[in-house]
Specification:
By secondary structure, the protein is α+β, with helices and mostly antiparallel strands. It is built from four helices and eight strands, in the order βαββαββαββαβ.
C-alpha cells in the first residue's frame, strides 16, 4: 500500500492585543502565507518526494493567487508551520499512525503553527491507496467501467487514473485479489502489478 498526505488549512486566528504588546510591527495582521481552505497534497511515490522539498509545489487548491502562497511553485511552507506539521506529514507518508489514541481516526491530526499571535490551524490526513497497473490502454469509457467495479469494494473511497496506472484510495486495507477480481469482472482487463 502507498500513502499520500493531504494538508488542509481549516482556520486562522489573530490576536491583535498580543501583536500590539509584543510584535515589532504591532499591526502585523493575520498570517499572509495561508488561506482558509488551502489544500496541499504530499506524495512520495516514483520520483516524487515532496517532504524533502518542504512541500514546494504541493498546493492544489487556494482561493487566492499562488505566487506568494506557501507550498506553491515559488515558496515552500512557512518555517513556523513546517516545524509544527512536518513530523505528522512524514509519519503519514510512511503509513504510520499520525496520532493514535488522541484523534478518533489515527490517520488524522489537527495541529497549528507556533506563531502565538496569528496561528494557522491545519488538518493533516494520511491517504492510503494502491497503485494498480492494468495491461490495457484505457479510454474514458474503460476507466468508468473499471472505476464502477472498484467502487463496489466496500473499503474503496475513490479511483483516480494516472498515466499507466490507477490509484485506488482506501479507508482500510483491501487484498490484491479483490482488486484483481474487480478488474476481471469488467471483461478483458488484467492487472500487471499492484504497489
Amino acid at each position: 500500500m502507498q500513502h499520500k498526505v493531504k494538508l488542509t488549512v481549516i482556520d486562522k486566528k489573530l490576536y491583535p492585543e498580543l501583536q500590539a504588546q509584543y510584535c515589532a510591527d504591532p499591526h502585523s495582521g493575520a498570517c499572509p502565507c495561508y488561506n482558509v481552505g488551502d489544500t496541499f497534497i504530499f506524495e512520495r511515490y516514483g520520483t516524487a518526494d515532496d517532504f524533502w522539498h518542504m512541500g514546494l509545489n504541493t498546493l492544489k487548491q487556494t482561493d487566492n493567487g499562488v505566487d506568494r502562497i506557501a507550498g506553491g511553485a515559488a515558496f515552500p511552507h512557512c518555517s513556523e508551520a513546517w516545524d509544527a506539521i512536518s513530523r505528522y506529514i512524514y509519519t503519514g507518508l510512511q503509513g504510520g499512525s499520525i496520532m493514535r489514541g488522541w484523534m478518533n481516526d489515527e490517520r488524522v491530526m489537527i495541529a497549528c503553527c507556533s506563531d502565538g499571535t496569528r496561528p494557522v490551524i491545519f488538518k493533516i490526513e494520511r491517504m492510503d491507496y494502491k497503485a494498480v497497473y492494468i495491461d490495457k490502454v484505457m479510454d474514458a469509457e474503460c476507466q468508468n467501467k473499471l472505476k464502477d467495479a472498484f467502487m463496489q469494494i466496500a473499503a474503496v473511497t475513490d479511483v483516480v487514473f494516472r498515466d499507466g496506472y490507477a490509484e485506488i484510495y482506501l479507508q482500510s486495507d483491501v487484498t490484491d485479489e479483490a482488486l484483481t477480481n474487480a478488474a476481471a469482472s469488467c471483461g478483458e482487463y488484467s492487472i500487471v502489478k499492484i504497489d
